[in-house]
Write a structure and sequence with these properties.
Layout (H helix, E strand, L loop, with lengths): L1 H75 L8 E11 L3 H6 L1 E2 L4 E2 L9 H5 L3 E6 L21 H9 L3 E3 L9 H14 L3 E3 L5 H4 L3 E5 L2 E9 L20 H13 L4 E7 L10 H12 L4 E5 L7 E7 L5 E7 L4 E3 L9 E11 L5 E15 L8 E5 H9 L7 H19 L3
Parallel strand pairs: 1-4, 1-13, 4-5, 5-6, 8-9, 9-10, 10-12
Antiparallel strand pairs: 1-14, 2-3, 7-8, 11-12, 14-15, 15-16
Length: about 425
């Protein structure tokens, strides 16, 4: 019996020793885990700091690179370069927005507008140009005014941002619809274009802005942009704000050309809102004014307003001092986007000019080409019906049976439109 009690005491003693050892073991494990955790934390902190530091250095380097490039571009206009400089200028026609267009662009789930899908098939040509100019045939007067189409156009602001994303750099804004919503609508349109980071010419909020020539630099070449319109659909220009829109006036135009020259413009591009609507033939007024512009030093004339294409031509212009220079004119670029249905209003072009500034400071227009486009409306679709088509590409895909979704009827239409475009542009 005594022996059993001794064994029990001995067993209890061992159990007591074991219970003391367990907490010590757990403590060691916890300490090890804590040390490992701290090591991981320190490593992560160092890694994040290093990554942030590297990204910051790269970002600052990119800023310096952009700054240096910009400085180089601007400074290169002040002195002759050792080599010729060539760039591409792209021009597109009237940007219209009928109610069918903004209804098509509306997303009922989000309550927002998005026109970007319209440009998917042709965006490549514009994004890859050095500079692109378009003509605005609507206003961004604001949602509170109510969106509308003819005879008073007011379009959702989103279109401006979609155009910027497309690659539009400059928009001419002087047109017969500029004052559809008065000076307030004109001013807000300018504000939206500024917000979208699109340069604009032709309408102004102040006299100071009106007196400032719009210049854009491309590869160091200084391009001046001018814009004038024949009228405002009978809407009276406010008497104290006559500066707000450029109307066609030879004295004013000549003064602006001289101002551009005095500021060392390499090239002068003039956009004219003129001509007879729906006529594919330039009228006498267009022909006479074109001669006036060329003789006073304009290099390129881009016509808008007729809503259909008119002919284009390259000229050798003799100036007053007897010197000559290259000149180019397209009397009307037609509609870029719209939902008009009159003959020739749905077909247009993306115009491309290859221009060179030579080491002697002369300017040559080396090549002229264009992409025929068509404003397609898919009546069988429930949403996103509107789409700009690259006519030649769509015809080719159809003929190869790669994409026949347009159907035989539209295929035939596109063939006819392609033939018409060629005839109009190359008319004598």
């Amino acid at each position: 019996m005594g022996k059993n009690r001794r064994n029990i005491r001995k067993l209890n003693h061992h159990m007591h020793d074991d219970t003391k050892k367990i907490p010590k073991t757990l403590l060691k494990i916890v300490l090890i885990l804590l040390i490992l955790f701290l090591i991981v934390m320190i490593f992560n902190i160092f890694h994040n700091w290093y990554t942030y530091h590297s990204i910051t250095e790269q970002y600052l380097a990119s800023l310096n690179s952009v700054e240096n490039t910009t400085t180089s571009e601007n400074s290169s206009t002040l002195e002759n370069t050792d080599t010729d400089t060539t760039f591409n200028l792209t021009a597109i026609g009237d940007i219209m927005c009928h109610n069918t267009q903004y209804i098509d662009a509306y997303n009922s789930d989000t309550g927002e507008y998005d026109f970007s899908y319209v440009f998917d098939d042709i965006a490549y040509y514009i994004k890859n140009s050095n500079i692109t100019i378009a003509n605005l045939e609507t206003t961004f007067a604001g949602k509170d005014k109510g969106y509308s189409n003819y005879p008073r156009f007011n379009t959702p602001d989103t279109l401006a941002y979609n155009l910027k994303k497309l690659g539009v750099d400059v928009i001419s804004t002087a047109g017969n619809h500029s004052l559809d919503y008065g000076f307030d609508g004109l001013s807000r349109t300018i504000d939206i274009l500024n917000s979208a980071d699109i340069s604009h010419v032709g309408t102004y909020k102040t006299q100071e802005e009106r007196n400032t020539i719009l210049f854009k630099y491309v590869k160091g070449i200084k391009i001046a942009f001018l814009n004038y319109a024949y009228g405002t659909n009978g809407i009276k220009i406010p008497g104290d704000k006559t500066f707000c829109i450029n109307l066609i006036d030879k004295d004013v135009i000549k003064s602006d050309i001289e101002s551009a020259k005095s500021q060392n413009a390499d090239i002068i591009v003039a956009s004219l809102h003129w001509g007879t609507e729906y006529s594919t033939i330039p009228n006498d007024s267009q022909n006479e004014l074109a001669d006036f512009l060329f003789q006073n030093g304009v290099n390129i004339i881009l016509g808008t307003h007729p809503h259909v294409l008119q002919k284009m031509e390259k000229r050798t212009v003799t100036l007053e001092d007897g010197s000559t220079q290259d000149g180019f004119i397209i009397y009307s670029l037609g509609n870029f986007i719209s939902d008009q249905n009159a003959a020739n209003t749905r077909s247009s072009i993306i115009l491309n000019l290859q221009i060179t500034k030579h080491t002697d400071n002369t300017i040559t227009i080396d090549a002229v080409d264009y992409i025929p486009i068509y404003m397609y409306k898919n009546s069988s679709a429930t949403t996103k019906k509107m789409k700009l088509l690259d006519i030649k590409k769509v015809i080719s895909l159809y003929e190869q049976s790669i994409d026949t979704s347009i159907g035989e009827s539209m295929y035939t239409t596109l063939q006819k439109e392609l033939n018409t475009i060629s005839k109009i542009l190359n008319a004598n």
